[in-house]
Design a protein that fits this description.
The protein is α/β, with parallel strands linked by helices. It contains twelve helices and nine strands.
Length: 277
């Protein structure tokens, strides 16, 4: 059983929703990324989504765009992203790590070479924003060969027919985009989210992770009621951008992530009890 499956099954037994923080590899500095990953796990993260820096991250807002620019300026490449995962695995063999990014760098690197090296490094899955299922056949085949998940996005505007198709091609989990627009969107409104998740669940038994617009305890608690996982990125990346050393990373992550993890656990357990009644 994969690390992703084990993690979701373990959390489901405890009626808990997974917390998936997103950080950009190499931001605020390449030497601090592994420390950030360990600090996140220590303070309640269940899965880590690690962004692969790219010069044109079209689905991301200004904060994550800037984090990619900084990482690239610091010399980050796909090779160094995989080195970071491998270093993280030296001390943590249990926490799933998902790579999120764009197709262009992987095409230049070479699909087969990249997936093989990612597998050896300890990567558990891949989320490529600009590669829909129709354009991912080779990637899906390679990922399957290496027991890695292919995660796809379902947007607020995705039709039910399209939801069914995407769900059928996904593995690991399905990423439900909560809001229209880019990451870090303000004024989150989740009124339609329950119906959206229910609709997706008709087509797949895979866990559903919800992201975009989640930025604090309040929004994380709202989203945790509906999905199997909550992704939080922009707010965390913004805070990490002010850190200059591992000690500041540890302090920042503890202050920001730990209360969110705690609040999510209380929310999901309470909801489970309410449903039982």
């Amino acid at each position: 059983m994969s690390r992703l499956n084990k993690t979701f099954k373990k959390l489901a037994k405890k009626s808990k929703t997974a917390l998936i923080p997103f950080i950009t590899a190499g931001h605020p500095h390449p030497l601090l990324t592994v420390a950030s990953m360990h600090a996140l796990v220590k303070n309640g993260a269940n899965i880590i989504e690690l962004g692969m820096p790219f010069s044109d991250p079209m689905a991301d807002g200004v904060v994550i765009q800037r984090s990619s620019e900084i990482a690239i300026e610091c010399g980050m490449t796909l090779d160094t992203v995989l080195d970071i995962v491998a270093e993280f695995r030296e001390k943590d063999s249990k926490t799933p790590v998902i790579l999120m990014g764009y197709l262009n760098p992987i095409e230049r690197f070479g699909y087969e070479k990249f997936i093989q090296q990612a597998s050896v490094s300890g990567v558990d899955g891949l989320l490529i924003v600009d590669a829909p299922p129709e354009e991912s056949k080779q990637l899906m085949q390679l990922l399957k060969q290496h027991n890695m998940a292919q995660i796809f996005l379902i947007a607020p505007t995705t039709t039910k027919k399209r939801q069914k198709y995407i769900a059928g091609k996904s593995s690991g989990f399905i990423y439900c985009v909560a809001l229209k627009g880019v990451t870090g969107a303000e004024n989150a409104e989740y009124s339609d989210l329950k119906a959206k998740v229910k609709s997706i669940k008709k087509y797949s038994d895979l866990p559903i992770a919800i992201g975009f617009g989640v930025k604090d305890v309040k929004t994380a608690k709202q989203v945790a009621k509906y999905g199997d996982a909550v992704v939080i990125g922009t707010a965390l990346v913004e805070k990490l951008g002010h850190c200059e050393n591992a000690q500041q990373i540890e302090k920042t992550v503890k202050k920001f992530i730990k209360p969110i993890a705690k609040a999510m656990n209380k929310t999901t357990i309470k909801n489970k009890k309410d449903k039982v009644k």
